[in-house]
Every structure is written in C-alpha cells, then in structure tokens.
Amino acid sequence: MRIPYPEKNPFLSRRPVKNGGIIRTNSVSKCKEQAPSQAGEIRIVPKISVIMAAYRGEKYIGSQLKSLFAQTRTPDEILIGDDSDTDATFHAVEAVKDLYAGEFRYIRNPHRLGFVRNFLHLAQEARGDLIFFCDQDDIWLPEKIEVLARILESDPTSEVAVCRSEMVDPDLNSLHKTPLDDVPDLLQKTEAINAGKGFFCLLNQTIGFQGHNIAMKRSFLSVFRQIPASYEYHDLWICHTAGFFGVLRFVDQVLTLYRIHDRNASTPCVRNVRHDLLHRFKEIRSSSGDVFGIARQLNDLVVFMEQNSPENPNRELLTGYCRYFNWRAELLQTGCMRRLLLLCRHPGRFRDYYRYGFGARSLVRDLIVKADRPRFEK
C-alpha cells in the first residue's frame, strides 16, 4: 500500500545557507555507478548520505569521522552543519577530511539552528537515496552502513531502519549497557514494530530509538521535514510517524558506540537517583511539564495524520491517546481536590489511565502533582 506522503511542503525549499562556509565539495555523479547482480542484470546501487549536526565538537568529531571513513560500505557524501561559535570544530574537521575520497561538505551556519533544525537543513541538502543521521561524538562500527542499507534496500515496505548502540565512556570503555536494556518485553515490541504493528509502544514511549541509530530513505524526507516545533527531538518525530505508517524496521545488532559525556544533547545514562519515598514524592509533586509537552506533540501529530493519512488504521489509537493527554493537561491546571471530583464525575477516564497510560502510577501522579497553569491550549 502506498503511503500518502505529501507532494509539496513549504519547508522543502533548497535554499543555500547564506554566508555558509563549505570547505570541500568533490564532483560526483547524481547516481552511484551501476553494478551487476548475481543474476547478471544491472542494478542501481543507492547513494549513501551521512548528515552530522555539530556544535563545539572538536574533541570527538575527528574520531567519529574516521569511523565513517572506515565503513565496509563507505558513504558517498558526508555533510556537516556546524552551529559552533568558534573555529575549533572547523580545524578538527580539516585535520582528517583528506582521509576521505567521497563528497564532503562542511557548512558553517550563520546563526545557531539547534540540532533539530540543523539536521533538517542537512537532510534537505543531502543528495543520497539513503540518509544516515550521525552525532559528532560517537563511533560507528565498521559494518553499520552496510547492515542498515541492506535492510532498506531489500524491504520495499520499509522507510526507516534503526539499530542498537552500546554506551561507552569518553575513552570508549564499555559501560556494559545499551539504551534498550531496561525496556520490558523488548523482543515482543520489536517484533511488532518490524511487522508494522508497533505504533502503540512507540507512542507511549515504552521503547524509543536514538537519532544516531536512524537511517531513512529519501522518500521519507517529505515526512521528516514537516516536524512541528512541539517536537524537541527529531528522532521522536521520525519514530512516531514511521511507526504510524508501519514502515519502521529494527535491527537487533549493536552498530554504534554511544559515547556518554557531560555535553551530550540527550543522555539516557545511569545517574545517581535517590530512592527514598519522601524525595520521590517531592519529585513527582514538582513535575507536570512533560504532560503538557506530550499533549502538544500529540495534537500536532493528529493534525499531520489527518492531513496525510486519514484512513490509516492507527488513527483511532492516536486520537484516543491524544484525548487522554489533553484531559490530563486540563486536569493538572486545577487543584488537587477538584481533580478527584472531576475523575469521579467521569469514571471512563479511569479506564483511560490503564488503556493509554501506566495505570495507577499515572493516576496517583496526576492527583498529587502541584497545580500548573501554563494556559494549555489544544
């Protein structure tokens, strides 16, 4: 079944970045050279683009780039968008770029875009058939591009492929942990995702995938470029939309060394947590902002889906989940006693906590958290 991607989008205008600096652009053909298959016929080998959003990445970007150069299937082009306010990252890139024979483009952004808009701009500038997202401070294992590209090339129903990563310290010593280790029923969820039926576990974020493990077909760019401002992380938008369309594929293989340090943009690493009951109660009481943020994201996701795939079988689940979070956001703007009264007047809402949320845990949290009045609007 054809996914009804939008044909036009105002975000996709291939405008060059004004005052952007490009340190090298090699001349390459639009399509990679054709190669004979085992049966003897000619097939076109998809072109690979790697895009990297950089910001003050001089410490680790050189080793990351070297891991890209050493891939068993080398990328055809590498694009770096640099948000840095100094030249240190530029010089670190200059020191290693000549080790790479493909097309290399370094773009110095005239103003800081932030990593989401930086990746968005780079994806639109990329010329490859397959686009790999890359962080500045990790290490790619040599077969990463080859493995993920094979999945996308061999499965015509796929649009996005993801893998696992192993968490390491700044010196690349293993922390003996992956971000998916604590996911309950991991095998069941990933099998559902690969069957195109894992939207719910992606929506309620009981499983998620980091951006540095994502590769997508160029055809999915029409979805990625419509990321709304409510999504602070591009990987979440890609996983939500790919899961909704049933085109996400998971490879249960560690292909990235995820370097954990004090300047990660996002770090699901082990940290010191106080488990005493009083501290946990105070922590819950003071945290309600995530409910409002998720509600805004879901409302934007519903709008996008209604415009692009109103007949999708996941639409009912998405709208129900959105109503649940809108209700919670409105509830949290009232006092604690009034919340209890409202829940008693609407007993069906209790069921929603178990259908869409985490049951009693979410319910108790909403009853005790401090009232917040951010003037939430749907």
Descriptive overview:
With 378 residues, this protein is α/β, with parallel strands linked by helices. It has two domains: 35-259, Spore Coat Polysaccharide Biosynthesis Protein SpsA, Chain A, CATH 3.90.550; 277-368, no CATH class. It is 37% helix and 15% strand. Strands 5-4-3-6-9-8-10-7 form an eight-stranded mixed beta sheet, sandwiched between helices. Strands 1-2 form a two-stranded antiparallel ribbon. Helix 10 (289-308) packs antiparallel against helix 11 (315-331). The chain is globular. The model is unreliable at 1-30 and 269-288 (pLDDT under 50).
Produce a short descriptive summary.
With 378 residues, the protein is of the alpha/beta class. 37% of the residues lie in helices and 15% in strands. The radius of gyration is 22 Å and the shape is globular.
For the record, the CATH class of the largest domain is Alpha Beta
| Uncertain segments | 1-30, 269-288
Strand content: 5-15%
Overall mean confidence score, pLDDT: 85
Give the count of helical stretches. 14
Order of helices and strands: EEEHEHEHEEHEHHEHHEHHHHHH
- Tell me, what's the shape? globular
Work out the number of β strands: 10
CATH topology of the largest domain: Spore Coat Polysaccharide Biosynthesis Protein SpsA, Chain A
Number of domains: 2
Query: Biggest sheet: strands, sense, closure?
Result: 8 strands, mixed
CATH homolog superfamily of the largest domain: Spore Coat Polysaccharide Biosynthesis Protein SpsA, Chain A
> Fraction of residues in helices?
25-40%
From the N-terminal CA to the C-terminal CA, the straight-line distance is 32 Å
CATH architectural category of the largest domain: Alpha-Beta Complex
Please list the strands of the largest sheet in the order they lie side by side.
5-4-3-6-9-8-10-7
- C-alpha Rg (nearest Å): 22 Å
Overall SS class: alpha/beta
